[in-house]
Amino acid sequence: xxxxxxxxxxxxxxxxxxxxxxxxxxxxxxxxxxxxxxxxxxxxxxxxxxxxxxxxxxxxxxxxxxxxxxxxxxxxxxxxxxxxxxxxxxxxxxxxxxxxxxxxxx
Length: 106
What we know:
Blueprint: H1 26-52, H2 54-68, H3 75-94, H4 97-100
Helix pairs in contact: 2-3
């Protein structure tokens, strides 16, 4: 009978196969899904904020036009009136008509 504890019976260590790259673990799928959801929600919020501030961008474009016409003769008086009208229009867009429409004078 052969001696089972003999050094002649030893073999090399058998290493398991390397872990494959694909398919990723469940945690990776959860992370990717949450990252995509976060990006989508962030994009929607940014889009709504961009749309909500459209009146500000339009007001700034009007202000640039008023400033360009400031150099003409009698432009100061018309520019002051135009800025007053522009401020009231922008305020009525940003706030309710009831709060802004009655404001006038100093």
